[in-house]
Amino acid sequence: MTSDLNHKKTRNGINSLLQKESTAGILLLICTMISVALASFPETEWINNIWDKEGSIKIADFSLDMSLRHWVNDALMAIFFFSVGLEIKREMLFGQLTSLKKSSLPVMAAIGGMAVPALIYSIFNAGEADTAGGWGIPMATDIAFAIGIISLLGSRVPANLKIFLTALAIVDDLGAIIVLAVFYPSHALHLGWLIYAGIIMVILFIFNRARLQNRLLYIIPGILMWYFTYRSGIHATIAGVMLASLIPAKCSEEGKEDSLMHKFIHGLHPAVNFLIIPLFALANAGVAIDFGIFGSEGIPPVSLGIFFGLLIGKPLGIFLLSFIGVKTGAASLPEGVTWGQVAAMGLLGGIGFTMSIFINSLAFSDPVITDIGKMSILLTSAIAAVTGLFALDMTCRKK
Fold first, then answer.
1. Cα(17)–Cα(147) distance, rounded to whole angstroms?
2. Is-contact 292 79, C-beta < 8 A?
3. Most buried of the four, 126, 134, 160, 333, by CB within 10 Å?
4. What proportion of the chain, given as a percentage, has pLDDT over 70?
């Protein structure tokens, strides 16, 4: 009885997440279109340029100055990564990633969906000093967009397929976070600041073990850890993930249902989905649709790597590793899900957008290459969304 109740709670929680993500996906699409439109006309380009203006925080002799775009990318996106980290933790403790049997298929699918696109990108950009480092760009899946597309088909899509995509995207996010931390530092590593961040983590670990539930005991040290991480050279958003790992998942009082982790998850969802991610799109998706940017020498390697990585590598990697997992007995298909639907879902995995644009902004120093990468991500993600929608509609109708 308890097991059935827990399963029902988990399913209700995921269904709630899916509903919010689908709405967020639509809003994200609108903000992306606005940002691209503003960048495409000289008369409105000044609006996009606002993001380059400086914004500062001053407390006594302390001052932190960054452009508004960097405040979004380094500070607000740290909250986004905190939310993602909490989702990963919840799924590992209570949801679809609690056991090897439950997690094996989405984990294998996510690994394939990260490794194959990175390999394809690297093949197209081998020997290209300016673009070879962008292999992390096609690794990511934008869950908000993907769920938003799936929501257009309503109840025709099996619930287990939606849950599979959600679990896959969560593992995918974890992989992207690791890649971001290890391979895309914001600047040279400073060990002293990293030690300070480590000390904060130890303090938070003690709070966690004591199951202290006061939000401020985690928020204030979390802000300090973000600043120390920012100064250390590791991208500041990683502090959000580190903080999430140290939030108590269990309650201090017996019989009390909501832990601090669950309170943060439910409290942050509206801000993340309807403020932070739309602001990220407005600040970073602005690129003029100008095919002349590709030059007269044909399509550049960075575009080919992103295009084939997301559009071919993602579905191929997801399907291939899922197929191997099921055939070897290491995993099993969710009930009611067909191989055709897995393949169609793989196409939706090619919607890179948020995380892909984020990594794109870190991978290249040349602004022209950054714009080419951004435009390639937008166009490829749009193609992946349309083809994935039609493929999923066809496979669901056949069933």
1. 10
2. no
3. 134
4. 88
What is the greatest pairwise CA distance in the chain? 68
Lowest mean pLDDT across 111-125, 171-185, 262-276, 358-372: 171-185
| CA dist., res. 244 & res. 88, Å (int) | 9
76, pLDDT greater than 70: yes
- How much is the pLDDT for 252? 54
- C-alpha to C-alpha distance for 79 and 219, rounded to whole angstroms: 11
pLDDT category of residue 135 using cuts at 50, 70 and 90:
very high
- Look up residue 384 and give its DSSP letter: H
Q: Which two tokens stand for residue 197?
A: 């961040």
Question: Of 181, 185, 121, 190, whose CA–CA distance to 350 is shortest?
Answer: 121
CA 7 to chain centroid: 26
Q: How far apart are CA 60 and CA 101, in angstroms?
A: 54
Helix (H, G, I), strand (E, B) or coil at 335: coil
Q: Give yes or no for a contact between 384 and 350, defined as CB atoms under 8 angstroms apart.
A: yes
Asked whether the beta carbons of 360 and 376 are under 8 A apart, the reply is no
**Is pLDDT at 194 greater than 60 in this prediction?**
yes
Domain residue extents for the chain:
2-65+99-177+287-398
Predicted local confidence at residue 255, as pLDDT: 43
Class (C level, CATH) for 2-65+99-177+287-398: mainly alpha
